[in-house]
Amino acid sequence: MTATWKVAPCLALGNTAVLKMSELSPLTADRLGELALEAGIPAGVLNVVQGYGATAGDALVRHHDVRAVSFTGGTATGRNIMKNAGLKKYSMELGGKSPVLIFEDADIERALDAALFTIFSINGERCTAGSRIFIQQSIYPEFVKRFAERANRLRVGDPNDRIPRLGRLSASNTGKKSPAISVSALKKAQPCWRAARINRPTCLRT
């Protein structure tokens, strides 16, 4: 999704593009390149490059034929790009915590759908994950109850199956850190349901 936000306007304005995705999600970029060719975009207009940021990514940022760089990712990587890009144009969407605001005049069903999607889709591994939800006090108890019920029904499994809604984390180091992060969070905040577990979708009240 993020790739199409960047590629589409670039091509629409008559430019060529080089798409380098995270090394943790290469198949998405490959498929986008295939779809571009199937749609009739000439070869060489959208180019897909795979590799690590420190090698392939840095080489692209420094290359004299690259006129502009658009990056979505961590703040530390963004700083390196700014340092190495020289006089190239660049745009950055760096790390943050995306809040979701729910007011009492909202359509609650749609708000529940949106809140659940923004945090748990793509396993929450995206820059726009709505990891904080602020709810107007008048609807807080009911919203939290219904949100927790929905989150507790989410199942983890093979993402190619129809029933599971969550797959395994893409980064192995994230998987190793997540239990400790979850345990720490459960010490500081109250779980929305009694049986909150560190290896399942969990919501906390603070």
TrEMBL record:
Keyword hit for Calcium: no
Molecular-function GO term, any one: betaine-aldehyde dehydrogenase (NAD+) activity
Enzyme nomenclature, EC number: 1.2.1.8
Active site per UniProt: E93
InterPro entries linked to this entry: Ald_DH/histidinol_DH (IPR016161), Ald_DH_C (IPR016163), Ald_DH_CS_CYS (IPR016160), Ald_DH_CS_GLU (IPR029510), Ald_DH_N (IPR016162), Aldehyde_DH_dom (IPR015590)
Ranges where the Aldehyde dehydrogenase domain occurs: 2-172
Family (UniProt): Belongs to the aldehyde dehydrogenase family.
This protein's name: 5-carboxymethyl-2-hydroxymuconate semialdehyde dehydrogenase
